[in-house]
Amino acid sequence: MMGIAVISDIHANVYALKAVLRDIDNRKIERIVSLGDVLYGPIAPVETYRLLLSRRMKHIRGNSDRGLLIEAGDKESTKYLVRNMLHRDHLNWINGLPTTHSSSPFFFCHGTPYADNTYLLYDVRNSGVRERTDEELAEILSCISEPYVICGHSHLPGTKIISKGNKTIINVGSVGLPAIFDHKPFPHKMESGNNNAKYTIIEEDPPGSIVIKHVEVPYSFEKAASKADSFDRGDWAYHIRTGRTREL
């Protein structure tokens, strides 16, 4: 099995995407899978779209991608801003993306196999964010036959092995947005703690043994942050610069 580079949550940060693709090319990895949330963000959605389509890779759709298919009513929102940058061809491409992808022994999804806006490894409650137990994860993945489940959405890279159901769960992290604050289902934040672009390599080495490598790539993050600032999105700029959020 050749190596697979899995990317997710670019969020229109073309500067981070260029750095990650350069790193992937330097490692001579030809197979790339993108787990979604690619164009939603106040940086460079059209440029991100063009770069992605210039490369051969498998795409699935994320929750923010899906959200762009819905008209934005709030003119102050990021969705409204991005929708005004995109054309019908961009939206048609998003609409045509599948929500999951299976390629044995791997199952790829954005959030969970059944919900693109739900974290797989984490549960958000009114009392805060907690890690899901092995029993909870085994139940969520009980209908998935593949032993490796690869996801994004939380923006936090990590790997968890659960003995029940013989599953390995891999969150690949975020290429373009190292921290997020969300109001749903309850106000919460997810912070990686640094401004590097993140993705994951999965390879077979030696034969029959799967090796997982979480990769961090430094890049010119100030270009992305300044672009967010220019669209009056200081919150996104802060996330990009620091890997943290000022909310909560």
Descriptive tags:
globular; five-stranded mixed β-sheet; Purple Acid Phosphatase, chain A, domain 2; alpha/beta; single chain; 8 helices; 28% helix
Plain-language structure description:
The protein has helices at residues 14-26, 45-53, 63-68, 78-85, 88-95, 134-140, 221-230, 234-242, and strands spanning 4-7, 31-34, 58-59, 100-103, 106-109, 122-125, 128-131, 148-151, 158-162, 167-171, 179-182, 188-191, 197-204, 210-217. By secondary structure, the chain is an alpha/beta fold. The protein has a single domain (4-242), classed as 4-Layer Sandwich (Purple Acid Phosphatase, chain A, domain 2), CATH 3.60.21.10. Helix 7 (221-230) runs antiparallel to helix 8 (234-242). The longest helix is centred in the first third of the chain and has 13 residues, at 14-26. The model has no long low-confidence stretch (mean pLDDT 95).
